[in-house]
Sequence to fold (251 residues):
Amino acid sequence: MGALPTFDTAQAASILDWWHDAGVDVLVEDTPRDWMAPPPVPAPVFASSARAPLLIEAAPAIHAPAVQLPDTLDAFLDWRQSDAAPEAAWDGISLTASGPADATLMVMVDCPDRDDGEAGHLLSGVPGRLFDRMLAAIGQSRDTVHLAAVCVRRPLAGRTPAGLETRLAEIALHHVGLIRPRGLLLLGNAASRALLGTELTSARGLSHAIDHKSGKSRAVASFHPRFLIEKPMAKAESWKDLQMLMGDFQG
Fold:
């Protein structure tokens, strides 16, 4: 009998990352979905009465109040690396944001890559070198942009837990409000979902207005550098996104 084939865990993780950046969240859903069916119409709720029934609104869901986030950038970044952050129990180290607090361009990615912990900053290695070239192509650099991640630690398999998506999105929006950038570049599907509420495939090709506590920022969603390394043909589409971003700056 021949030897048993070996399983390359690093390659498998890389494939999972590739599909995640492309917007694939699940392999098979729990229940079948009719993609051609119209959206369901919610049934009206009526109040009981001896006279004709009156249409009333359903009671809103009650949520526990969220913890107040720090209102200064230094305090916020300290909080993101503290035990109070949602990712504090995850493996690895926390990587805080970098770049000037008054940057006109902010870049948001999903989470640290596997090699970023050793490098001590986001977007290191081969993806980082491609990111640096992307910035240079639009007249920017790491010294001029504010670079941050939706998750300050890398989640299991690089995928944000569904139960924390809403909270991490609130935190990311708060971070944007502290920087008050004129432009916002969202790299990857998780960043698009967090700040635009939609998948990358639907968000690309459009300039979005993001409302935050300090005003509005224009946002453009594009591919993560790690995805472009796996699929170089997408670089042409990425360049279109960067041109749109610069059009917002010049407009």
Observations:
- The first strand starts at residue 45 and ends at 47.
